[in-house]
Automatic annotation (TrEMBL), chain A:
This is Sugar ABC transporter substrate-binding protein. The chain crosses the membrane at residues 21-45, 83-104, 116-139, 146-166, 172-193, 214-233, 261-291, 303-325, 331-350. GO terms for cellular component: plasma membrane. One of its GO terms (biological process) is siderophore-iron import into cell. It comes from Devosia pacifica. Belongs to the binding-protein-dependent transport system permease family. FecCD subfamily. Its main location: membrane.
Length: 359, 255
């Protein structure tokens, strides 16, 4: 990038930072709503946006209309829950990424990098391959993934804290180490299983998908997203302070130890639930917060809500791509996010967006 | 009642005694300078005072309350800190950074009010950084960074200021301006300082430390003598009075 282009983009960023949230957020919410509507109309059966909305309104108010039963089922039973889940998971993964990056003070952190998604994968494969957690019935995979995510987060946290002080670098290294080991465990379970189908079903889950989403799958993710989002937003100032360092945060009145533990609980819950309902979708928590910070700066009071809306919109469109690119075959969502995310990661490193700590 | 009371404070780090039974007190509005060579325990003592490093034994009281009996937030309302800090990978604008000084005063979800913005602006003006408010902190020079951190401490509107080598990275003019500014605030201040002449000129009292122990405390004239400087720093010193207080000339021993 040339100097003038860089300063032009800096000026643009400064102007965007001046846009008050009261204008920016409704605008982004409107974009999300439009995206959801469009995503519902796109598919093998073409529907108009008008029809889609009328069906949704009729369903909510309990009336009927002049559309076919097939159209109603496609909108209400097939597409809308799926699109909404994609939005919830996208928003959730994005704010998890934001908060994790603040906790480890490193913009390269996300559930994937910290090994938490790998933990969830182990849990899911234990269910698929060995029939663990059978008591949870149809929610067994979700329960397994959730427990795996929480377990992995706890493991990473304990390893990082073993040396006494919890340093951001130790947390990242512990995450990477655990991620590798847990991926190995997943492969081991899949390869040593007698179940021939396991490799395929595990693969499908590991790559992430919103296929076969029903309304019943939506409640928990939405609840956790709202609860977790409110909690994180309420801690915005503390998260800001945490970014300049533990000591500085303490001198600004933040109880750093307590905040870390609370964040640990909330982030495990958020990641666990999101991964449990959708599989291991990588890089959303990395790409979205990074782009958002480039636009609105570092203040979490802006970054969190904007990331949530942008993350939701992003994943809605990725899911549309997953359905349409190779239709009628469906791509796993995680494949697309990885193909987009990997090069993005490299670009971050190459353009010095991520600067090593100055000494 | 003394505004700050440090009562037999000892700090251990990894089993080693870093600060040993330090005792002193500070009256409201006084400016106390903490002097001593590298590794004498100044920073650790300050960290114990601003409630980041738990002392092994002893008490630190601000206006009669032990800082370890108060919540971090209550301490932050009373006591603002300018420490030697390094930013991580994330950058803030100068006004965002200074605005963080308002953190201990804000409740959950409370928004910045017009008075918060006014306080931030006034703090920036006091350190002469108003023009640079929209710059990114990391792109500032060392001296500008230091002044921005002082502005953040001012925005905290605490009655007590702790400065750990505030004149580090500052050129001569900014060193003088910063210490003049701190003096003019009339806020109770404790500062770790390296420059003994500046310490003598701006401080009401000095505490001189070596190897974690207080060697001497009292007025600058009492504390700063050629013999004591030689004993503590291992340099020969020649002191002479000058227009602005004290001029000190140093030499390595044997030269």
């Amino acid at each position: 990038m040339t100097v003038s282009a860089r300063s032009a983009s800096a000026r643009l960023a400064l102007q965007l930072q001046r846009i008050p949230l009261t204008m920016g957020l409704p605008l982004l919410a409107a974009v999300l709503l439009l995206s959801v509507t469009l995503a519902v109309t796109i598919g093998p059966v073409d529907l108009s946006m008008m029809t889609a909305w009328r069906i949704v309104l009729a369903k909510i108010t309990g009336t009927t209309g002049d559309w076919s039963m097939a159209a109603e089922n496609i909108v209400w039973m097939l597409r809308l829950p799926r699109v909404l889940l994609a939005a919830a998971v996208g928003g959730g993964l994005a704010i998890v990424g934001v908060a994790m990056q603040a906790v480890v003070r490193n913009p390269l952190a996300d559930p994937y990098v910290l090994g938490i998604s790998s933990g969830a994968s182990v849990g899911a494969v234990l269910v698929l391959g060995l029939g663990w957690f059978g008591v949870f019935g149809i929610y067994a995979i979700s329960a397994g993934a959730f427990l795996g995510a929480v377990g992995a987060f706890a493991l990473v946290f304990l390893i990082a804290i073993a040396g006494g002080q919890l340093s951001p670098l130790r947390l990242v290294l512990a995450g990477v180490a655990c991620g590798y080991s847990l991926s190995g465990v997943t492969s081991l379970i899949v390869l040593t299983s007698d179940d021939r189908e396991l490799a395929r079903s595990a693969m499908e889950w590991l790559l992430g998908s919103f296929g076969n989403t029903a309304w019943a799958d939506l409640g928990l993710p939405l609840l956790v997203l709202l609860g977790g989002g409110m909690f994180l937003l309420s801690q915005s100032r503390a998260l800001n302070a945490l970014l300049i360092g533990d000591d500085s945060a303490r001198t600004l009145g933040v109880d750093v130890g307590r905040l870390r533990i609370m964040l640990f609980i909330v982030l495990s819950l958020l990641t666990g639930v999101m991964v449990a309902v959708s599989g291991a979708i990588g890089f959303v928590g990395l790409v979205v917060p990074h782009i958002v910070r480039m636009i609105v700066g570092t203040d979490h009071r802006r970054v969190l809500p904007v990331s949530m809306l942008l993350g939701a919109t992003f994943l809605v469109w990725v899911d549309v791509g997953a359905r349409m690119l190779f239709a009628p075959a469906e791509l796993p969502v995680g494949v697309i996010t990885s193909i987009l995310g990997g090069p993005f990661f490299v670009w971050m490193l190459a353009t010095n967006r991520w600067k090593p700590r100055e000494t | 009642m003394a505004h700050l009371n440090v009562d037999r404070v000892s700090v251990d780090i990894e089993g080693r005694r870093i600060v040993n039974e330090v005792v002193f007190s500070l009256e409201r509005g006084q400016f106390l300078g903490l002097v001593g060579p590298n590794g004498s325990g100044k920073t650790s003592l300050l960290r114990a005072i601003y409630r980041v490093l738990a002392p092994r034994s002893g008490r630190v009281e601000v206006a009669g309350d032990s800082v370890w009996a108060l919540s971090p937030r209550d301490v932050a309302k009373r006591l603002a800190v300018v420490a030697q800090e390094r930013m991580g990978e994330f950058d803030f604008t100068v006004s965002e950074l200074v605005g963080m000084g308002r953190t201990p005063h804000k409740r959950l979800m409370e928004r910045d009010t017009a008075s918060d913005f006014a306080i931030v602006e006034e703090s920036l003006r006091q350190v002469g950084m108003l023009e640079l408010r929209d710059r990114q902190f990391m792109n500032l020079s060392g001296g500008e960074k230091q002044r921005a951190l002082v502005a953040r401490a001012l925005a905290q509107q605490a009655e007590f200021l702790v400065l750990d080598e505030p004149t580090n990275h500052l050129d001569i003019r900014h060193q003088l301006e910063l210490l003049e500014l701190v003096r003019s605030l009339g806020v109770t201040t404790i500062a770790a300082l390296h420059d003994l002449s500046l310490a003598a000129r701006y401080c009401d009292a000095l505490v001189m430390m070596k190897d974690g122990c207080v060697i001497e405390s009292g007025s600058p004239q009492q504390v700063l003598t050629a013999e004591r400087i030689e004993a503590v720093y291992g340099v020969r010193a020649r002191l002479s009075s000058s227009e602005n207080g004290l001029a000190i000339e140093y030499n390595l021993p044997g030269k």
